[in-house]
Amino acid sequence: MALLEIRDLHVFYGNIEALQGISIDADPGEVVAILGSNGAGKTTTLRTISGLLRPRSGTIAFEGRSLLGLPAHRIVAAGLSQVPEGRRIFNILSVEENLTLGGYLIRSQRRLVQERKGSVYELFPQLHERRAQLAGTLSGGEQQMLAIGRALMSAPTVLMLDEPSLGLSPLLARSVLRTVKTIAESGTSVLLVEQNARQALRIANRAYVIETGRILMEGPASTLANDERVQRAYLGGFEDVEAPAGTTGP
After folding, report:
1. CATH number for the domain running over 1-79+157-167+187-241
2. Distance (Å, whole) CA 136 – CA 119
């Protein structure tokens, strides 16, 4: 049994079926990439797991327990956190205050809140340097670090990231995705929706390709990275791709 199991998930927006039987697994410490074109259903998948959308049918199980019907804050408390597309940080609050809000569920345990902030600052030293700075004045890369750090304040077992490199320079995007891999290596599972398929496949263990609400392909990231269909549709042609972390070369 996987840590997170999604089975035959059907989600509708009115009469439009956005997800048509999605099934996804994630194991401990694994980076699972979810790839697809705009409108394929990637964000809908994450929002449904997070409890922000209710499926019409299907199952979502975490550590063997159903998440269906739970409100979003209960799902966070259970151990799943999402960093939404666009970061959604509080611009008029400081870095420190944003992190404090991320620890809302443990707000009565001040020592634990401080310990978790310390872990975030260790992962993102730039945030420590700017902890008193208003979040809205940070660079795009620093804002993404803050959004991830805020999610980590709840010490999730599963971290869901929706387009973490969106709007970042290639250098910053690579830095953020390397940090995502570091987070997974610490034992946190990561569901990664990422526009940069090439970079996502480099750090992922496994991947799913979604098109029009259905799983088109799935398998080890190294296998998909070298699949001609994936190369043509998402990687800009057929060429060698650096093997994902955790795989070995010839």
Report:
1. 3.40.50.300
2. 22
Q: What are the strands of the beta sheet with 16-26, ordered from one edge? A: 16-26, 4-13, 57-62, 65-66
Find, among 56, 42, 77, the residue nearest to 11 by Cα.
Answer: 56
What is the structure's pLDDT at 107? 83
- Using CA atoms, how far apart are residues 27 and 172, in angstroms rounded to an integer? 27
pTM: 0.89
The chain-wide mean pLDDT, for the chain, equals: 90
> Which are the contacts of 50, defined by CB distance < 8 A and separation ≥ 6?
72, 75, 80, 82, 160
Provide mean pLDDT across the span 80-95.
91
User: Is the dihedral angle over the CA atoms 70, 74, 78, 81 positive or is it negative?
Assistant: positive
As a whole number of angstroms, the distance between CA 197 and CA 199 comes to: 6
Select from 97, 203, 192 the least CA-distant residue to 149. Answer: 97
Range list for CATH 3.40.50.300 in the chain: 1-79+157-167+187-241
State the CB neighbour count (10 A cutoff) for residue 15: 5
| Maximum distance among all Cα pairs of the chain, rounded to whole angstroms | 54
What amino acid occupies position 151? A
CB contact at 8 A, 117 and 96: yes
